[in-house]
Amino acid sequence: MRSQTSHINQLVQMGMYLAASLILSWVETVLPLTFGLPGMKLGLANLAVVLCLYMMGPGHAFVLTIAKALLSGFLFGNATMLLYNLAGAICSCLMMALLKKSRLFHIPVISAAGGVLHNVGQLFVAFFMIQTYGVLYYVPILLLAGLITGIIIGTVAALILPALQKMQHSGGDQL
Amino acid sequence: MYWFLFCLKHMFDCAKVNDMNKKSYKYDLLIIGSILLVIIATWLIFHITHDTEGDGTVVVICDGKEIASYPLAEDAIISLGIGDTNADYNLLQIKDGYADIIDANCPDGLCVSQRAIHANGESLICLPHQLVILIQSEKESDLDAVTN
Fold first, then answer.
1. B11 vs A137: CB contact, 8 Å cut-off?
2. Cβ <8 Å between B19 and A140
3. What is the pLDDT of residues B110-126, one digit of tens each?
4. Looking at chain B, which residue has its C-alpha nearest residue A158?
5. β pairing state of B65-71 and B88-95
6. Using a CB-CB distance cutoff of 8 angstroms, which residues of chain B are in contact with residue A105?
7. Cα separation of A90 and B34, whole Å?
8. Contact between A155 and B23 using a beta-carbon 8 Å cutoff
9. pTM for this entry
């Protein structure tokens, strides 16, 4: 009985994270802060992934990442954007899970590494699809953008995380 | 801008307090440093290769007709004879991926004082001799097609 409730608990939590990440993706499409660079964005949806990684573990975070990339791709983008996002999100999630497992880093740094890896994955796909070295001229600026936005998102996540943990410790029934 | 930075610092301080387990910042700085290093390295690589690529061609146009073209990558000094008897001249120098007119016997000498050119579409113009020197580069137009 106990395991069943925790199962349902996890299901509900995953649904909440997915909903939150999709809403954040939507906010991003409404308020595009691209600074004149194609492919650059704030990565707000990464916030949900970071929180899920810390609250529920890497496996759940990975499922959330893929579901988020697919759904936001179908809802707000087109086929190519879906491909870019999926590649970037998988790279970023794997990197963050690895760094978290090492237990050496603070959240902003983990999130920053995730942001950078997201852009690396996107550029990789762009490079193979366009087959031009011109894409690579974007590498430094996109990496820098990923670093800065990642640190901002990670700091926000570090602020939210204690509240979530307190909520969970005070009894799962309250969630 | 200052306000934004202040907020960011405040947020970071709060996050530091809230971070449950006390960990050293050594590894954090390591990661951030290595990412910055990669950024600087890639930027430098592309900057250098972009500048010294010199895969363009120097096209010489006199009186509306293209009379010659030279690769930008090979250093050379070329004396361009102007007019039917080649009485007038412009001395074109190609060096380190840049093209420049270093001497001429035109009356105003404006072409000599113009800066050396290297990027696609840049030009040197000598009006008295009706001479135009252009850089044409495949690479640049390729990049523009992608970014557009």
1. no
2. no
3. 888 888 887 777 788 88
4. B15
5. unpaired
6. 23, 27-28, 31
7. 21
8. no
9. 0.63
A90: pLDDT strictly greater than 90: yes
- Tell me phi and psi for residue B105, to 5 degrees: -110, 25
Q: What is the ipTM of this complex?
A: 0.70
A135–chain B Cβ distance below 8 A for any pair = yes
DSSP B76-93: EEEEEEESTT--EEEEEE
Q: How far is CA B55 from CA A4, A63, A67, B139, in A?
A: 67, 47, 46, 8
Query: How far is Cα A165 from Cα A172, in angstroms, rounded to an integer?
Result: 10
- Give the one of B19, B28, B46 whose C-beta lies nearest to A136's C-beta: B46
For residue B32, give the nearest of A107, A112, A137 by CB distance: A112
Alpha helices (H) in chain A, listed in sequence order: 2-30, 46-56, 58-76, 79-101, 107-130, 139-169
C-alpha dihedral sign at A72, A89, A34, A28: positive
Could you give the CA distance from residue B121 to residue B137 in angstroms, rounded to a whole number? 8
Torsion of CA A63, A64, A65, A68, to 10 degrees: 120
How many whole angstroms separate alpha carbon A168 and alpha carbon A161? Answer: 11
Measured CA to CA, the distance from residue A125 to residue A121 in angstroms comes to: 6
Q: Would the pLDDT of A133 be above 70?
A: no
Query: Is A33 in the B-facing interface, judged by CB distances under 8 Å?
Result: no
Could you read off the pLDDT of B58-90 as tens digits, one per residue? 888 888 788 888 888 888 888 888 777 777 888
Cα–Cα dist A62/A94, whole Å: 8
